[in-house]
Design a protein that fits this description.
With 413 residues, the protein is mainly alpha-helical.
Length: 413
């Protein structure tokens, strides 16, 4: 990582207040939720007699609500405080994950996943600031701890989903509800309330007005098309892959490890040596080629596994660099810029899963990957054609806190 850590901070990273560990634990579970559902999609489709397109709506409802919530999270947290925002987010995840586990049809799970998405948006948008504010050993120690929680959650989510899903598709939902309930209790007991005098209220209209800025609008458009590629790889691949829950879980465990490694360590190295727009112009076409390769090797389990893992490596870089660009593109408060951008990009993610299964049903199993690759190339063109408007994003190295915000926001993609 690019964050510089003094010897004092290195020795103190594990000696944190209990409230920091409470938030970090809950952060691991929240990030696990991103890939938890992946291994059980085929099982849900089979046991609940749902079509692949129906089950892909589990991603769509989650992402639509998460995206819309991002318009309002800064408004909410700036008024009720970080602790209440965290607890509301955790409570929503507990309730809706448990409800999903008890559901008897896919339509109910789709609805409850929407509530889960709202909870996740509220929690993750507040977690970093809380850890930084409460941690000992300086900002860098707090950021390392947050990034460790992020990487652990992204990697373990699909693996846990596969392990529990091999027993029953309900188990991953019950597991998430139980772990988040523990996190809720820990934060309730251990985290102190924040000082009202330090809050700076955010306007409700601010995230909407932010999209009038050309640089932010360009980045949001690029991310929308890019996320079609991201979620085609993540949400559609379990169907042509042909593995059981454990095999899918292991495959996307490799995806998660690759994404975590490149987002935390590789992306900062690349942006320290190249302009951010250059990194995007190079890595986006590589992702498009990876998606085309997935289409070519759609009939080979080995080929698809390799495409998924390579895709994770590329996605980690892109998530972090895109969000860093957003934070430097304007002089807007970073929470406002990030929420506006995230809301738009999640629309791409929401469209991709059901679009992929519909295309596969109408044409061939490879078609969704080719369409996704084309969508990523459109994102590349947006970046290339908008370079003049994006000139500001290439100025200077990223501060450690901003880098961590980028990694955290990118993980929600």
């Amino acid at each position: 990582m690019s964050a510089s850590v003094s010897p004092v901070e290195k020795t103190s990273i594990l000696h944190q207040p209990k409230q920091v560990w409470a938030v970090a634990f809950a952060s691991v579970i929240a990030f696990m939720g991103i890939g938890l559902v992946d291994p059980i999609l085929p099982a849900i489709a089979e046991q609940l007699e749902a079509s692949p397109t129906d089950t892909e709506m589990l991603f769509t409802s989650y992402l639509v609500v998460t995206g819309l919530a991002m318009f309002f999270t800064s408004f909410i947290s700036s008024r009720i405080g970080a602790k209440k925002t965290l607890l509301i987010g955790l409570a929503l995840i507990v309730v809706f994950a448990a409800a999903a586990a008890l559901s008897g049809n896919v339509e109910s799970i789709i609805a409850f996943r929407a509530g889960w998405g709202l909870g996740n948006a509220l929690f993750i948008s507040t977690a970093l600031a809380t850890i930084v504010g409460a941690a000992s050993g300086g900002t860098s120690s707090a950021i390392i701890l947050y990034e460790a929680a992020l990487g652990l959650g992204i990697a373990i989510g699909p693996l846990l989903g596969g392990l529990l899903g091999s027993v029953t598709w309900r188990a991953p939902f019950f597991g998430t509800a139980a772990l988040m309930a523990i996190g809720f209790i820990a934060i309730t007991v251990l985290l102190k309330g924040d000082d009202r005098a330090t809050r700076v209220p955010t306007s409700l209209a601010a995230p909407f007005r932010a999209l009038a800025r050309p640089a932010l609008a360009l980045l949001a458009a690029a991310a929308l098309f890019y996320n079609i590629g991201f979620f085609t790889l993540l949400a559609y691949t379990p169907f042509p892959l042909g593995f059981g829950a454990m095999g899918i879980g292991l495959t996307f465990f490799g995806w998660g490890v690759g994404l975590a490694i490149t987002s935390v360590w590789v992306a900062p190295v690349l942006t320290a040596r190249m302009k951010r727009t250059t990194v995007l112009a190079v890595v986006l076409p590589l992702l498009a080629l990876d998606l085309v390769a997935a289409g070519i090797f759609v009939g080979s389990q080995t080929g698809l596994v390799v495409a998924v893992v390579v895709g994770g490596l590329l996605l980690g870089v892109l998530n972090t660099v895109l969000t860093e660009c957003v934070m430097e593109a304007t002089n807007l408060p970073r929470s406002v810029a990030s929420s506006s951008y995230s809301a738009v990009r999640f629309l791409g993610g929401a469209v991709a899963p059901p679009l992929a299964t519909t295309l596969a049903g109408l044409f061939t199993a490879a078609t969704p990957y080719y369409v996704a690759g084309g969508s990523v190339l459109i994102a590349t063109l947006v970046v290339l054609l908008g370079r003049r408007a994006l000139a500001r994003v290439n100025d200077g190295a990223e501060e450690p806190v901003v880098e961590a915000e980028a990694i955290g926001a990118g993980a929600l993609a």
